[in-house]
Amino acid sequence: MRARIAVLPGDGIGAEVTAEAVRGLRAIAARYGHDFTFEEGLLGGAAIDATGQPLPAATLDLCTQSDAVLMGAVGGPKWSHPDASVRPEQGLLQLRKALGLFANLRPVVPHPAVLDASPIKAELLNGVDIMVVRELTSGIYFGEKHRTATEAMDVCRYTVGEIERVVRLAGRLARERRRKITSIDKANVLETSRLWRSVVDRILPAEFPDVAFEHMLVDSAAMHLIRKPRDFDVIVTENMFGDILTDEASMLAGSLGLLPSASLGATMRGGLYEPIHGSAPDIAGRGIANPYAALLSAGMLLKYSLQLPAEAAALEAAVSAAIVSGVRPADIAKPGSAGASTRAAGDAVLAAIEPANRD
Ligand code: IPM
Ligand code: MN
Fold first, then answer.
1. Is the Cβ atom of 243 under 6 angstroms away from ligand 1?
2. Looking at residue 357, what is its pLDDT?
3. Which of 119, 125, 175, 263 has the maximal Cβ count within 10 Å?
4. Could you state, in order of their start, the residue ranges of all structural domains in the chain?
């Protein structure tokens, strides 16, 4: 098949990890006879430097004309002064909103070969397989903001329609998994959470009677994620809770450098795929960032936007093979051993993709 893929490296290690993800996609295209074209666009700090805007119109056009978007990371100290009126992160938020990407899927599946990279005991991690569905285009991220010299305000707002669509998406995902949803909120305090809960209580039993569900308060969920992570199947939650809980959940997998994500809208077309990690300015440009999360994000791109499940599975298996063969970047390296370079990790993935050419 033919596909146009927009590549937005962004800032910091974004360029290094997306380069490996593109190499992975090229190798998959070669092996399966697809024709993927890649076009780069500016986003975040890199775009501010070049154009003054974190999301230039040309980048948005490129994304809307593409079948999928592969993104690296945005942000960095250069653009993060508290008083900065333009910030790299705004570019990403505007892009998610403009593309209508209301659901952010963040799978958390600790790899059996690197359980030792997690600070959590291995016996708690065996069999953990969580899919977090984070609402991505509303809530406190997008509500009215206000600032004076002596006060500041961020409004958290949700509409019924915004909750319904993400809950339905979680319901559909749960049907392909273990059919259990945990909806996470703060309904003992927040009005938006009480609305969220009422929508979940109406939609799930009526439309997904075959899916079991429970509600959990976010503070308790934060604890439960560490205490009994195996209890979770699909988690659905609002924007900021999902942001925070997935950074926490990344420790189950051992590192932020292993967690991919897919941001989807009503149609899969134009989905955005990015590692959940940030731009890591402290290690940028040194060739030591972990590219596995970006490669796994490319795998999600194959699965969801291009509807190529075999190719997605092949890329995922190649990342797994690289990990099993012991190619571990610094963030998941064994204590005392030097980490593999970004390129070496990418090479190991490519090596695991290519042998099948000789099938
Ligand atoms: C993420 C990031 C972003 C977010 C930032 C960069 C705006 O932390 O994708 O999790 O908060 O959504
Ligand atoms: Mn985050």
1. yes
2. 47
3. 263
4. 1-102+258-359, 119-253
